[in-house]
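Look at a sample.

——
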Amino acid sequence: MSKIINVLLVGVGGQGTILASKILTHVAIAQGYEVKMSEIHGMAQRGGSVVTQVRMGKDVYSPVIEPGEADFIVAFEQLEAYRWAHFLKNDGVLIANTQKIAPLPVLIGAATYPEKILADLKERIERFIELDGLKLAIEAGNAKATNVVLMGVLSKFMQFPENSWQDALSAKVPAKLLELNKKAFSLGVDGAKIR
């Protein structure tokens, strides 16, 4: 536990990045890690970027992850994966949801959504996972469970026991949505394959 683990969660307002970071933080604390978390909301309620940085280890003094330091990036949307990919370590893992959410400049016609984002990321990043988290969330019963699908994927690459993730879901997800989210998490675990 001497090494600090850096996890960057990036998405768009309304995708549940904050809840996902709270689930991850709950798991890490339960495993005895010191955890620091910071959140950046860029007009989140209007579809702007939401970035959460979670750092865990024996002694963590700052919540800020510098470029090239993230062990994991969990991107809830393609363009956000592209924007933040330079924060990933050379041997880090990028988990990218294939969903596209057009930002305001694209919506008003002032810009176009970049083509071939995922193909470009695949060329640059060795440990790259893409999956249609939205489709899996809908299969679980609710599109809003995409965040939990992505936590299921992340769980495959972290050294935390399965029951810790289940405990975190029970603690952070409303009881009426717990079974649905457990299914979403399980679908994410099953979908966690590098390339």
